[in-house]
């Protein structure tokens, strides 16, 4: 995707950053109207939020964890209601988190053309029943390798602006996660992803999963930095109180990996922001962690 510079903020601490990953009750495992996510975004010193609820899929595919196809217009209405309720200067933008699954590309391509999206996240959700049925064969390491192959394919599909929680598979079997062992396969996937220009996410909700670490972990993040892959921060909030959670820690991780900028999307165009400016604009860490976790 192309890059468009953002205008300079009015002051060093003016809000300039978005939380770019959050959900609505339509996915059946989140709570709170988007307007509540908006209110917490304002409290966190953000300039906006991007709603990215789980995309509908055809023929009942993983229907228990996403909106139904007939609820798509309801999703658009919910996001619009939150945008209308937002205070002046705060934006609520339309996005979506869409599953990459081999054979579903045409469905997603048509779906993404139904509305004026600002941001499309691509996810390889290893834990949905259809993915496990198709790709789990009893070997955790083989499952990890397949996951990273699909991650690279998702970038190469041209369907997505950014890849969500890119090492999510480490939660499939935490005892079998050995980054040094999987590193060569991660490198190959990242080489392919870097060629596409697609961004990748650092997802702060990973700290609350079975392998309690942000996604990706520091080893993979450093490999992403070596390849110049842009990074977007998302809380993956399924409840309004997690908006902006862990963003200061994520910024620290990015700098430690070698990043100087962090990215946001608008109108499906990437903007890169100086990490120091973002840190100055976001609410202090002790505030951002005070609202609780999923």
Low-confidence stretches: 1-11, 286-294
Compute the number of structural domains: 1
- CATH topological fold name: TIM Barrel
Per DSSP E runs of 2 or more residues, the count of β-strands stands at 9
Gross CATH architecture: Alpha-Beta Barrel
- Under the CATH scheme, which class? Alpha Beta
The gyration radius over C-alpha positions equals: 18 Å
If you average the pLDDT, what whole number results? Answer: 93
The level of helicity is 25-40%
What is the N-to-C succession of helices and strands? Answer: EHEHEHEHHEHEHEHEEHH
Shape: globular
The biggest sheet, with number of strands, parallel, antiparallel or mixed sense and barrel status, is: 7 strands, parallel
How much of the sequence lies in strands comes to 5-15%
CA-to-CA gap between the ends? 32 Å
| Estimated structural class | alpha/beta
Strand arrangement in the largest pleated sheet: 1-2-3-4-5-6-7
DSSP helical segment count: 10
Description:
This protein has 294 residues and is α/β, with parallel strands linked by helices. It has one domain: TIM Barrel. 36% of the residues lie in helices and 15% in strands. The chain is built from ten helices and nine strands. The strands form two sheets. The protein has a seven-stranded parallel beta sheet, with helices on one face. The chain has a two-stranded antiparallel sheet with strand order 8-9. Helix 1 runs parallel beside helix 2 and helix 6 (179-196) runs parallel beside helix 7 (218-226). The longest helix has 18 residues, at 179-196. It starts with 17 loop residues before the first strand and ends in a 6-residue tail after the last helix. Residues 1-11 and 286-294 have low confidence and may be disordered.
């Amino acid at each position: 995707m192309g890059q468009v510079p953002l205008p300079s903020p009015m002051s060093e601490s003016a809000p300039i950053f978005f939380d770019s990953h959050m959900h609505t009750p339509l996915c059946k495992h989140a709570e709170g109207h988007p307007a509540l996510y908006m209110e917490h975004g304002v409290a966190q010193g953000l300039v906006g939020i991007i709603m990215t609820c789980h995309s509908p899929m055809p023929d009942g595919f993983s229907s228990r964890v996403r909106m139904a196809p007939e609820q798509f217009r309801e999703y658009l209405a919910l996001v619009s209601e939150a945008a209308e309720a937002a205070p002046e200067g705060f934006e609520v933008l339309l996005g979506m988190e869409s599953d990459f699954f081999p054979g579903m590309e045409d469905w997603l391509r048509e779906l993404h053309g139904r509305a004026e999206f600002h941001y499309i996240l691509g996810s390889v959700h290893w834990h949905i029943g259809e993915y496990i049925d198709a790709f789990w064969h009893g070997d955790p390491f083989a499952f990890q390798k397949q996951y990273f192959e699909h991650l690279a394919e998702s970038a190469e599909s041209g369907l997505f602006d950014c890849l969500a929680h890119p090492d999510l598979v480490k939660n499939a079997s935490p005892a079998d996660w050995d980054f040094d062992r999987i590193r060569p396969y991660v490198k190959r996937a990242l080489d392919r992803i870097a060629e596409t220009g697609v961004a990748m996410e650092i997802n702060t909700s990973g700290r609350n999963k079975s392998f309690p670490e942000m996604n990706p972990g520091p080893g993979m993040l450093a490999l992403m930095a070596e390849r110049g892959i842009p990074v977007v921060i998302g809380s993956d909030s399924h409840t309004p109180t997690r908006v902006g959670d862990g963003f200061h820690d994520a910024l620290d991780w990015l700098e430690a990996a070698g990043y100087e900028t962090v990215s946001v999307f608008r109108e499906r165009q990437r903007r890169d922001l100086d990490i120091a400016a973002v840190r100055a604009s976001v609410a202090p860490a002790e505030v951002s962690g005070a609202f609780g976790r999923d």
